Structure to design on (356 residues):
DNA sequence: CGTTACATGTAACCGGTTACATGATTTG
DNA sequence: CAAATCATGTAACCGGTTACATGTAACG
């Protein structure tokens, strides 16, 4: 599991409220690790019990329940420990392969519309990533060590989207030319 | 969710016991959709309640509890219905990206060993897939419609492994040359 | 006769998803 | 002032993982 460590990393970058974390997991981080606000609040509660993080009513809370979470030394140590253990290799797991197999067994059906949808999706993603890369990494050389790692994350997404797009285009061509 | 439909597809290809299904999900199918025997038995029980599948004591059961599961008309209809609804697009979700981000925030640590491990893993996978492709799809032309779909599934894996391998090699080079 | 493979299951727990609830603040 | 956004939470359910349990069949 990584959600706890993803949240810890986010808090290390910047102390935040649960809501702010949830928004970041819907945007930038969310491209690579999605989480809903419920997951995040649950995880924050658990980590506070463990002493990895601490919280106080946020300075700008006013009459609201807004809390500011900050990473504690124990949390930083846990994060460092975790980064040094081997990471599980992610397996490919895509509903579409199950549908392809089902169609092969059923002997009927048409996936061309589905493939068009995917091609649009991956094309959009690739163009998002290209814009992010141009904005954050290509314009301002030389990059810090930290930025180079962030760039590697983005490149991972770019490689993945390119492969997905190429496969879908190839599959569509094969299913259309007959 | 797709496990139910993955199992249905497997039963459509060949009536089987839970144990046989579990073994197939550990081998060929498992490259694209992993499932443990507990998940499979749970799913078989649910689908039998729904009337999608039916079971009898297997012909070769002897004194064992071995059961043979067969797909029912309702199960086939459900599978056909499901293949025609849009498939959820799989998001990339890899622990390694979280570790990269954590290292960027912590400002220390070394992922080169991890990358070497990944390169070995993806190289092995690619060679497995190449062997499967040569055995099942490249030698015997022309392919049936069903075989062409199966080939597309395998190609999806090949595209994914190639992209993963290229990224890891590129990342290792970047992290080593300094 | 002991070990390995075959075969099916229960139990417990954690992660992920969805629906619902509640109230404060900001904005048009 | 109504609507959208900010902000946090409870509850229920399903999927996925791990540990444990039980017994038969095949093999050396």
């Amino acid at each position: 599991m990584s959600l706890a460590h993803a949240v810890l990393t986010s808090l290390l970058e910047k102390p935040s409220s649960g809501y702010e974390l949830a928004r970041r997991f819907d945007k930038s981080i969310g491209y690579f690790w999605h989480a809903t606000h419920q997951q995040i609040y649950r995880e924050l509660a658990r980590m506070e019990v463990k002493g990895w993080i601490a919280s106080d009513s946020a300075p700008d809370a006013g009459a609201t329940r807004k809390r500011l979470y900050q990473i504690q030394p124990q949390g930083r140590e846990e994060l460092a420990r975790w980064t040094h253990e081997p990471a599980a290799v992610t397996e490919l797991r895509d509903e579409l392969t199950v549908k392809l197999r089902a169609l092969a067994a059923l002997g009927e059906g048409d996936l061309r519309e589905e493939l068009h949808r995917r091609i649009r999706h991956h094309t959009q993603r690739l163009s998002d990533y290209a814009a992010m890369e141009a904005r954050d990494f290509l314009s301002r050389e030389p990059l810090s060590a930290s930025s180079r790692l962030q760039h590697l994350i983005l490149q991972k997404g770019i490689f993945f989207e390119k492969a997905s797009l190429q496969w879908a285009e190839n599959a569509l061509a094969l299913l259309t030319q007959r």
